[in-house]
Amino acid sequence: MCKNTYKWQFSSSLVTWGLSTDIMVAKRHFSTMEAEANCIRAIASSFDSADSSGDLTITCNGNSIKCHKYVVSRRSERFKAVLDGDEFRDQPESSIDLPDETDDAAVHAMLEFCYSVNYKSPTPNTSLFHVCMYSLAEKFMIDDLKKLATDRFREAAEMEDDVSLAASIRESYAITTDNEKILKDTIVKLVLHNVQLSQPPTKALDQLTDEIPAYAADLARAAIKNLAPLKRKYRCPGGCGGEFEKALVPSQMYRHYCGIHKKVREWTMAGSTWNANWGREWITD
């Protein structure tokens, strides 16, 4: 029998024998985020699949897309209203034709979004396609799709020439209502941003102000709002929690007494870098 006596000494992170405390603590194995991602992938894999138990066929331009009533009715208020009606409620399998829609690729992408909260952009990726996606999101009442389509529009438009952008703007004012100004505000900001970069509107964009009065009005309102700095509320950069209200202008010096450092803080906006980073970080409303 061993007669030796061993003494154990624990520190905050190590045992004197060299064992890490990590092996002494049971790790968590379940991740909610990972489980939710797996769930979305499982649902997405059932979209337009011959192997899935789809009970709804949606047709557009002669192309059929296999779906599930439960999924599309939970994502689209318009589909929900149709499928809850007497014609479809008790039917084990149903079919809906969309004769008014001419872009079957956009319809397929819309239904794909209902399953995966995402959709594949076409090749080449055009801003015009995402205008169509926004229009479908309005018609079929899918709010989240409007937001994604707007983001995708911006990404595509930033890579396009003014002729392509002008065509997308013209289409957006023709086929969308956009009462919330989600897409149209993005359009106006894109155009004004180019002007601020000393890139005057080309003939293709300039013609739109004569062709589309609503676009001209949106552009004018945004330009006027952009002329004068708005008075906004900011927090002290020293971390004391103090708040101040200023109409911030580049190159001007500002002062604020910091309650933590017990001194007056001085800073400038430092141009667009300050406005994009520091200002956004400390703004309170």
Automatic annotation (TrEMBL):
SUPFAM superfamilies: POZ domain. CDD domains: BTB_POZ_ZBTB_KLHL-like. InterPro entries: BTB/POZ_dom, SKP1/BTB/POZ_sf. Pfam families: BTB. Residues 54-123 form the BTB domain. This is BTB domain-containing protein. It comes from Pseudocercospora eumusae.
